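Researcher: Structure for this, please.
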Amino acid sequence: MARKDTSKKTTTNALEKLFLHALGDIYSAENAASRALKDLAGAATLPGLQAALTAHRDETEAQRKRLEAIFEMFHARPKSITCQAIKGIVDEGETMLGEFGDTDAADAAVIFVAQAIEHYEINRFGTLREWAHELGKPEAERLLSEMLDAEYAADQMLTKIAEDQANRAAEGARAGM
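Model: Predicted structure, token format:
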């Protein structure tokens, strides 16, 4: 029986396969996030929140192109692997908006859902960036860093809108009951 080679080359091949699988997952997630951000912008009542979600949706479209470029760097065709996690977040968001979408807490609920999407993307882009570094792909690492920075910026913008407006509107509705 031949002994399995556990050298760095085998490890790198396994990591590259894992990287490409995770890249397919986040590619699927970005497609789902784009659709969800459009719906969330439509559900938002604050003009600033609508604008922020629409701008981030446009950014998400650009990120899909970056992900396709990363696939090319690995000589792979873009492959979408159904992302169950983002599907669950979107489903939870639909439930949340169904319950709170017609209340003064609508914008807080929209932000809650949008930030769940952002945090998932932050997690994935951060991990993929580190794997790209390990795999010796500096251009992929750079693109993933750009995407990670965009997700952090979107999350911070949503937090600011929540703190400055959405949470106060929701809290004011409770206080007025």
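Researcher: Any notable elements?
Model: Confidence is low (pLDDT under 50) at residues 7-11. DSSP finds five helices and no strands in the chain.
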